Amino acid sequence: MGETIGAAAAVFAGTNIDDIVILTVLFLTSRAGGALRPRHIVAGQYAGIAALVAVSAVAALGLTVVPDRWVGLLGLVPFGMGVRGLVRLRRKDGDGGDPEPIASGPLAVAGVTVANGADNASVYAPLFRTIGPGAVAVTVAVFAVLVAVWCAAASWLGSHRKVIALVERSGRWLVPVVFMVIGAAIVAQSMIP
User: Fold this and answer.
1) Total tally of structural domains belonging to the chain
2) Helix and strand counts by DSSP (H, E) for the chain
C-alpha cells in the first residue's frame, strides 16, 4: 500500500509540475482583483483532473485486450515527450515563456487543466492498465489529496513573485526529465515477469 501511495504521488507530481505554474498565475490573477476567485480555481482544477483520470481509465480499459508486455511500451510516449521537451528547450535556449492562461470560472480553469493535461492521460492510461483495480483506487485517492496540496502550494506561491520565477525556470527542464523517468519506469515495470 505504501509503495502504491508513493508511486501515485510521484506520478502526480511529475505530470503536474507544469500545473503548479499555471495555478500560481491563476491565484495571482485572483489576488489582483480579477473575476476569478480561489474557489473557482480549486473547483476547476478538481474537475480538470477528474476528467483526465476518467479519460485515462477508459483508455486503460481499452488496453485490456493488449498483452501487458506491449502495454508497457506505451511508456515510450511520456519518455518521448520528455526527450522532445528537452530538445525544444535546448533549441529555444531558455527564451520566453508560455503565455499566461486567462480564465474566468471553474469551467475555464478545468479547460486549461485538461488542455494542459494531454501528457497526464498518456501517463495515467498505461499506469492504470498495469497496476490493477485496487491500486487504481488508491492512486485516484492520492491524486484527489494532491490536487488540494497543489492548490494550496500554488496559492502560497502566488503571493511570492521570486518563488514564481524560480519555479518557472526550473520547470522548463524538470518537466521533461520527470516525463522521461516516468516513461522509463512504465517500460521497465512491464518487462518484469
Assistant:
1) 1
2) 9, 0
pLDDT digit string (tens) for 62-89? 765 555 566 566 667 667 767 877 887 7
Contact criterion met (CB below 8 Å) for 44 and 105 = yes
Q: Which domain holds residue 76?
A: 2-191
Residue with cell 515477469: 193
Whole-angstrom distance, CA of residue 63 vs CA of residue 26: 36
Quick one: which of 2, 45, 10 has its CA closest to 127? 10
* CA distance linking residue 161 with residue 32, whole number of Å: 13
Q: What angle do CA 173, 72, 4 make, to 5 degrees?
A: 75
State the cell numbers at 153.
502550494
Residue type, 138: V
